[in-house]
């Protein structure tokens, strides 16, 4: 008899989490490593938000809370959806979890049966397919491409949907590409969904506020109000509010779904951290003035990285609309050999050799479902980015 669950055979550890651990271990050994793998702003949590957490501690807000969120936070989320997205929800339609990942996982666990399919556009966030597998479903990967701006077309979505499809997981702006769907592009997607009333949409809007240039964010339930009753709109405070360690994600959707998600959470983690919830109330209700200046910094870093990577031999790096990632193609590097003698047959080979020979850590594209590419997080200092991109240029110049 095997002790471990056979379910674990269906999934793999998160490659991004693994890389973060590897970078930390190499730095602890005294090696000169520049880590560009973590999807985490290098900004500190704004002071007003930290102060709200301190006040909550001082007031003794350290006990269990309702399973899926305190009333104050649920109301703040209701107000946020109305203010930012023009979506009307009630507190009973809101769920708060320990990060956006738990919200997504709860929804999948609450809805998927064996044989149910979930359409996931690639490139995708590394956890989507494995969460579907853990919940007993079947991920159906709909592969986008550099030619479509890493965005799923309506025809591709139509081809991926079957009578077994239960969800489409939608992410804009995207992790790992930073690609964002325009209103027109999103309308084409929602038009397809309207032709398939058995398909629900899980909209991961985590990077909503991290957009650049003239890009205007919107979300499926706003574009197509008739999708409201089969849309779970997911968000959180981790990225725009620099609160990754506080671990607060949330979603709003049909009350029956939220109730089912609450049941899952009640028998797993129970409530999110009480202190984090009170800090998140301040994040959503308090000043938003820091978001625009932070975005200007991210935009400057984006432009720096895109310019320097496009100057590297064999690399083509598109300009993302949002988030803080670029997803360059390394098609021009495949089949070559590095200065250190490593044969570059795929993007994992490229990233392994890059780390070993230059100390730059990036995540290989196969982890996100589309190769040959790699992901760079530019949520770090200008100096680190310049040095990392210089090393990448040197590495590529040495390929023969």
TrEMBL record:
<dbReference type="GO" id="GO:0030170">
    <property type="term" value="F:pyridoxal phosphate binding"/>
</dbReference>
<protein>
    <recommendedName>
        <fullName>Aminotransferase</fullName>
        <ecNumber>2.6.1.-</ecNumber>
    </recommendedName>
</protein>
<feature type="domain" description="Aminotransferase class I/classII large">
    <location>
        <begin position="31"/>
        <end position="392"/>
    </location>
</feature>
<dbReference type="InterPro" id="IPR004838">
    <property type="entry name" value="NHTrfase_class1_PyrdxlP-BS"/>
</dbReference>
<dbReference type="Pfam" id="PF00155">
    <property type="entry name" value="Aminotran_1_2"/>
</dbReference>
<comment type="similarity">
    <text>Belongs to the class-I pyridoxal-phosphate-dependent aminotransferase family.</text>
</comment>
<keyword id="KW-0808">Transferase</keyword>
<keyword id="KW-0032">Aminotransferase</keyword>
<dbReference type="InterPro" id="IPR004839">
    <property type="entry name" value="Aminotransferase_I/II_large"/>
</dbReference>
<dbReference type="InterPro" id="IPR050596">
    <property type="entry name" value="AspAT/PAT-like"/>
</dbReference>
<dbReference type="GO" id="GO:0004069">
    <property type="term" value="F:L-aspartate:2-oxoglutarate aminotransferase activity"/>
</dbReference>
<dbReference type="InterPro" id="IPR015421">
    <property type="entry name" value="PyrdxlP-dep_Trfase_major"/>
</dbReference>
<dbReference type="InterPro" id="IPR015424">
    <property type="entry name" value="PyrdxlP-dep_Trfase"/>
</dbReference>
<dbReference type="InterPro" id="IPR015422">
    <property type="entry name" value="PyrdxlP-dep_Trfase_small"/>
</dbReference>
<comment type="subunit">
    <text>Homodimer.</text>
</comment>
<keyword id="KW-0663">Pyridoxal phosphate</keyword>
<dbReference type="GO" id="GO:0006520">
    <property type="term" value="P:amino acid metabolic process"/>
</dbReference>
């Amino acid at each position: 008899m095997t002790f471990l669950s056979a379910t674990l055979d269906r999934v793999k550890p998160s490659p991004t989490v693994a890389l973060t651990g590897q970078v930390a271990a190499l730095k602890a050994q005294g090696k000169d490593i520049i880590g560009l793998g973590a999807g985490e702003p290098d900004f500190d949590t704004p002071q007003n938000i930290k102060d709200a957490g301190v006040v909550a501690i001082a007031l003794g807000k350290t006990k269990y809370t309702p399973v899926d969120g305190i009333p104050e936070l649920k109301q703040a989320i209701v107000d946020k959806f109305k203010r930012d997205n023009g979506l009307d929800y009630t507190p009973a339609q809101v769920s708060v979890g320990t990060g956006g990942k738990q919200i997504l996982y709860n929804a999948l666990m609450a809805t998927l049966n064996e044989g149910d399919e979930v359409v996931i556009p690639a490139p995708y966030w590394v956890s989507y397919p494995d969460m579907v597998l853990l919940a007993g479903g079947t991920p159906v990967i709909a592969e986008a491409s550099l030619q479509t701006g890493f965005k799923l077309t309506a025809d591709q979505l139509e081809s991926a949907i079957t009578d077994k499809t239960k969800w489409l997981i939608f992410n804009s702006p995207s992790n790992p590409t930073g690609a964002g769907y325009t209103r027109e592009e999103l309308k084409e997607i929602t038009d397809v969904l309207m032709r398939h009333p058995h398909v629900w949409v899980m909209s991961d809007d985590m990077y909503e506020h991290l957009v650049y240039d003239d890009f205007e964010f919107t979300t499926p339930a706003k574009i197509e109000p008739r999708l409201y009753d089969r849309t779970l709109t997911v968000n959180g405070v981790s990225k725009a509010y620099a609160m990754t360690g506080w671990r607060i994600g949330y979603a709003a959707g049909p009350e029956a779904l939220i109730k089912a998600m609450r049941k899952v959470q009640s028998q797993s983690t129970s409530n999110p951290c009480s202190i984090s919830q009170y800090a998140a109330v301040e994040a959503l209700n308090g000043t938003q003035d820091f978001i625009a200046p932070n975005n200007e910094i991210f935009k400057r870093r984006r432009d720096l990285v895109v310019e320097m990577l496009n100057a590297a031999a064999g690399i083509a790096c598109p300009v993302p609309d949002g988030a803080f990632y670029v997803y360059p193609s390394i098609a021009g590097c495949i089949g070559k050999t590095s200065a250190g003698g490593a044969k570059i047959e795929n993007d994992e080979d490229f990233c392994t050799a890059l780390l070993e020979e230059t100390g730059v850590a990036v995540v290989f594209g196969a982890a996100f479902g589309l190769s040959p590419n790699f992901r760079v997080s530019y949520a770090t200092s200008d100096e680190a980015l310049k040095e990392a991109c210089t090393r990448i240029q040197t590495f590529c110049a040495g390929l023969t």
